């Protein structure tokens, strides 16, 4: 590398605020294509300061990889096979509590539902950002969480403030509890007017899988069509 190239790279790092800093990160998401995209976006360590040291697609893999690599930050999807992000947090409690090398968690999810945000924050995550975040902002969020800050996408912080300002536990919705986390995701997107193809693209699943989830939701909630489903979700402020 020439002196000019080195100087340019150093200047670029300084501009990004990452010069001289490194954060080791584990990616936990059940969609391989999404992990690949995040890796490509933030994993160029010389430029971003982020070193991706491991990946996992479900709860058991996540717990194993996190324990083996001891990263500074875990990017954690909320909805995972095996119990979801909350289960990863529960099984990683000792690592989060380590006074010398704490592992900190930043939720990265397509969901912006209040119960998902509150659930992982109660579980010990230091922040919650949605998958609409830019690569630059995600790198910034990772560094801030590694330093102990709390980071939230706009509007999500209000959910947390409201939840922790109240001493009352949120009411249990038995109908909603019948649905899996993935079914809840599909429910919200249907209620927001998304077409099946759009939902499939956003959740990285097939159209046929979307149809199966919709059928399961309608059956469990004893609804007849997506119009009734939309009214049901709107009445519960899930949209």
Automatic annotation (TrEMBL):
Pfam families: GerE, Response_reg
The keyword Lyase is annotated on this UniProt entry: no
Ranges of residues in domain Response regulatory: 24-146
Domain of life of the organism encoding this protein: Bacteria
Alphabetical UniProt keywords: DNA-binding, Phosphoprotein
Residue ranges annotated for the HTH luxR-type domain, each copy included: 172-237
Keyword Phosphoprotein: yes
PTM-bearing positions, type 4-aspartylphosphate: 77
PANTHER family: TWO-COMPONENT RESPONSE REGULATOR
Protein name: Response regulator transcription factor
Organism of derivation: Streptomyces lonegramiae
